[in-house]
């Protein structure tokens, strides 16, 4: 009996709170009858903030109205309010101290207010418990350096799709920040002091800006960084020590820039890196040892670059990879990447590697290219298969080929028949004007001038033999 009476008394405050929330609900709004008092005023056609809200309000949604102005203490005193959303309005001016009286506010959403171009230094004063602030797509060109000085609890800052030309100095020294979203701005550089003091930063998004300069050791204080997006910028080169100290980095996106090579100094400390994007650059060369410390790498994106070959030494050891993306590169399918074909067949972690050259295999996928071998077991490039014989000698050294031996045989045959020099020259002229022109059109398929001359010599021999038979 005592337990029942106790439960009744404990439930009285809850019942009163729900009743009070509904009773004090502003016009044009809907108030929930749940334990937490939620005020829903979105899409209500409001042009200004309602004059009163229930004191017990836990969350207020004022999205998609036509509110233009926030006066000082615009919401009165709401000690229980945790979430306030003002996204998709027409707010153009916020009076300093507009959010006073919201001592417990943890999340403030003001995204998509395209007329907000300026914020006062004391706009967010007294919001000491604010954890999440959303100012995305507000047409901001800059924010005061000391605007967050009274937000010691701020962890997540959303400022993407504005007009910043530099990383806001306001975030420096905010040691509690863990997530910063600055994508789709006009930021041109990451200075050596842009990220100073962000010792707990885990996530930084700078994609789709205009970054063309990254200073040496720009990320030196971001020891806990795990996700870094630098893709779709104008980066042509990186300092040697760009990512030194980022020991916890798990994902790095450098895609969509103008990098021409991959240095073996960039990823020296990234032992925990799992995903690396280097796609959509102009990379034609990867230094040996560039990936040797990436022992946790699962996915590597090198597609859409200018790579023609990929030495095996670059990927030693290769067992660490889970996925390797190499499509949309002008691959030269010769013996230098025979190892890659074998790796594709054995591990099935790579696919779609169309050959651009040599011409004999152009258009084929690397998996369909057949690499022949000499008697000694050496790999033969597809282009070499079009030659009459294989010679192990380096280019420039004298070599006894079938062509040379055959030419010698023809010369002896002509001397034996006693044909005059005039007859020989006339015959060769005839063959050169008829056969050589016809065969020259086949040059793209691997025939060289030496092969054509060889065929011409062979036809000459047939011609002489037929004449000898006719005489007999």
UniProtKB/TrEMBL annotation:
Ranges where the LRRNT domain occurs: 24-59
UniProt signal peptide: 1-17
GO cellular component, one term: plasma membrane
LRRCT domain ranges (all copies): 329-374
Pfam families per the UniProt record, alphabetical: LRR_8, LRRNT
Superkingdom in the source lineage: Eukaryota
Alphabetic keyword roster: Leucine-rich repeat, Repeat, Signal
UniProt cross-references to PANTHER family, sorted A to Z: ANTIGEN BSP, PUTATIVE-RELATED, CHAOPTIN-RELATED
Protein name: Nyctalopin
Source organism (scientific name): Phrynocephalus forsythii
């Amino acid at each position: 009996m005592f337990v029942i009476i106790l439960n009744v008394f404990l439930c009285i405050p809850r019942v009163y709170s729900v009743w009070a929330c509904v009773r004090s609900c502003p016009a044009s709004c809907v108030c929930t009858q749940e334990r937490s008092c939620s005020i829903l005023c979105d899409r209500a056609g409001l042009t200004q903030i309602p004059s009163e809200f229930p004191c017990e309000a836990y969350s207020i949604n004022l999205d998609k109205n036509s509110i233009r102005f926030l006066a000082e203490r615009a919401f009165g005193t709401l000690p229980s309010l945790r979430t306030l959303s003002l996204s998709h309005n027409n707010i153009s001016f916020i009076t300093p101290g507009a959010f006073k009286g919201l001592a417990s506010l943890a999340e403030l959403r003001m995204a998509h207010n395209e007329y907000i171009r300026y914020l006062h230094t004391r706009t967010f004063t007294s919001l000491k418990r604010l954890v999440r602030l959303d100012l995305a797509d507000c047409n901001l060109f800059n924010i005061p350096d000391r605007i967050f000085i009274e937000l010691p609890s701020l962890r997540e800052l959303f400022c993407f799709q504005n007009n910043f030309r530099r990383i806001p100095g306001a975030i420096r020294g905010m040691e509690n920040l863990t997530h910063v979203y600055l994508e789709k701005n006009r930021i041109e550089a990451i200075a050596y002091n842009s990220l100073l003091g962000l010792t707990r930063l885990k996530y930084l998004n700078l994609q789709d800006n205009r970054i063309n300069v990254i200073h040496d050791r720009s990320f030196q204080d971001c020891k806990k960084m795990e996700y870094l997006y630098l893709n779709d910028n104008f980066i042509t080169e990186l300092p040697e020590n760009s990512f030194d100290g980022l020991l916890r980095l798990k994902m790095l996106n450098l895609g969509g820039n103008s990098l021409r090579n991959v240095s073996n100094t960039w990823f020296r400390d990234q032992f925990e890196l799992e995903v690396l994007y280097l796609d959509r650059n102009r990379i034609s060369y990867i230094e040996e040892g560039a990936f040797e410390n990436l022992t946790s790498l699962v996915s590597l994106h090198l597609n859409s670059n200018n790579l023609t070959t990929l030495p095996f030494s670059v990927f030693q050891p290769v067992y660490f990879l889970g996925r390797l993306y190499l499509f949309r590169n002008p691959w030269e399918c010769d013996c230098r990447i025979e190892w890659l074909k074998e790796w594709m067949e054995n591990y099935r972690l790579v696919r779609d590697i169309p050959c651009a050259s040599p011409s004999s295999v152009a258009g084929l996928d690397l998996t369909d290219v057949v690499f022949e071998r000499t008697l000694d077991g050496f790999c033969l490039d597809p282009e070499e298969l079009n030659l009459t014989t294989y010679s192990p000698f380096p280019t420039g050294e004298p070599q006894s080929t079938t062509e040379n031996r055959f030419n010698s045989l023809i010369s002896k045959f002509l001397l034996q028949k006693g044909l005059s020099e005039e007859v020989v020259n006339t015959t060769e002229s005839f063959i050169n004007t008829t056969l050589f022109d016809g065969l020259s059109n086949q040059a793209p398929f691997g025939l060289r001038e030496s092969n054509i001359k060889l065929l011409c010599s062979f036809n000459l021999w047939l011609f002489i033999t037929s004449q000898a038979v006719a005489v007999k």
